[in-house]
Here is the input.
Amino acid sequence: MPHAEEVALLRSRAKSFLARAEDSLAEGDYDIASFLAEQSLQLYLKSILLEELGDFPRTHSISFLIQQIRKIPNRQQLTVLLEKRSDIIRLMEDVYIASRYLPRRYSEEDARLLVNAAKEVLRFGMVL
Here is the structure.
């Protein structure tokens, strides 16, 4: 596997972002928890593409990353899991943009949904 170190680095970062998201959620910083959950999932999905295809698209769209993962035969269970969470994926994509450019706040419920979704996907991939 030519990109093993890079894959490991992305997964380590994904895990760290998730840990910080959980810390922020516990501290009541829901905007940051939401953003960090999105970053965690985004990096994890990119690590899969890097591992399986040798590269990943330079995009921040989780939906686009999922479309690319859908093409990988041995990742169909992950795709099914992600597609079941399509409403949360849309919220994550909103968080990526809104947390930077819009005066929007995220609720505890939003943050909890996002953190738990990221945790579920990383756990599914056995990164945790």
